[in-house]
Amino acid sequence: LKSNPSNNEEKEAQTQLTKSDELQRLHSQALSAYQQEDYETAISLLDEILAVCVWDAELRELRAECYIKEGEPSKAISDLKAAAKLKSDNTEAFYKISRIYYQLGDHELSLSEVRECLKLDQDHKQCFSLYKQVKKLNKQIESAEELIREGRYEDAINKYDSVMKTEPEVTIYATRAKERICHCLSKNQQPTEAIKVCTEVLQLEPTNVNALKDRAEAYLLEDLYEE
After folding, report:
1. Burial class, 65, CB count within 10 angstroms (exposed 0-12 / middle 13-18 / buried 19+)
2. For 90, which DSSP code?
3. Predicted confidence band of residue 204 (pLDDT cuts 50, 70, 90)
4. CA distance readout (Å), 58 to 17, 50, 89, 98, 120
5. For the whole prediction, is pTM greater than 0.90?
6. Between 91-103 and 125-149, two packed helices, what is the crossing angle to 10 degrees?
7. 191 close to 219: Cβ distance less than 8 angstroms
8. Which regions are annotated as TPR repeats (predicted)?
């Protein structure tokens, strides 16, 4: 404005200044809403700001935090992935993405993201600790699946028991492990045990197709045709 005060440029500059003031006001409101744990309001304000400030990594990270609190992890991942690209050496974003995938039961993607964190900083304590946990779990699951392919069902059951001991906190891993144990018992001609474990899975996930099929196979072995 000061260097070239022609009419056109003055109008454009004033418009941008007004917009800038408005965005700063929205930013203050978004932070306030976040601090008051009103995450829905914070998200809608951040949506407005990010429509203009598309490349702001910090704002994306803040919106990701709100999405996590609102129970929308997949939207949080989308923002965190953008933040990881926008800010160099963003180990925190990779760590958070890996944690979310892990909580969702996607151990393979979790392992891939935590490795990205360690590429940036091999001494990152949180990432290294998570890496060890996910790697161990991943290896056990891969090993169990290999045993199932080889028809070694007893060994696979033992391996899935180990999976449940490795991760007792995140329930999705216990559910998946039980689903596979139910499959092994059914294949191993142990119908009574199979029915019991499959039923446990179906109490948690009534529409689990694999558990329904495996329990049906077990019922057939027991001549329980109606069931």
Report:
1. middle
2. -
3. very high
4. 22, 10, 14, 18, 19
5. no
6. 40
7. yes
8. 91-124
Q: Measured between alpha carbons, how far is 173 from 83 in angstroms, rounded to an integer?
A: 29
Query: 163 CB contacts (<8 Å, ≥6 apart)?
Result: 137, 140, 141, 144, 173, 177
- The per-residue pLDDT for range 68-103, each reduced to its tens digit, is 999 999 999 999 999 999 999 999 999 999 999 999
What are the structural domain ranges in the chain?
A: 151-226
Q: Which residue has the tokens 């039980």?
A: 178
CATH class of domain segment(s) 151-226: mainly alpha
Give the C-alpha separation, 117 to 39, whole Å.
Answer: 27
Grouping H, G, I as helix, E, B as strand and the rest as coil, residue 87 is coil
In the 8-state DSSP scheme, what is residue 121?
-
Provide the 8-state DSSP code for 89. Answer: T
Cβ–Cβ < 8 Å for 134, 114: yes
- Per the CB < 8 A criterion, the answer to whether 185 and 197 are in contact is yes
Q: Copy the structure tokens of residue 146.
A: 């290999």
- CA–CA distance, 178 with 171 (Å, rounded to integer): 11
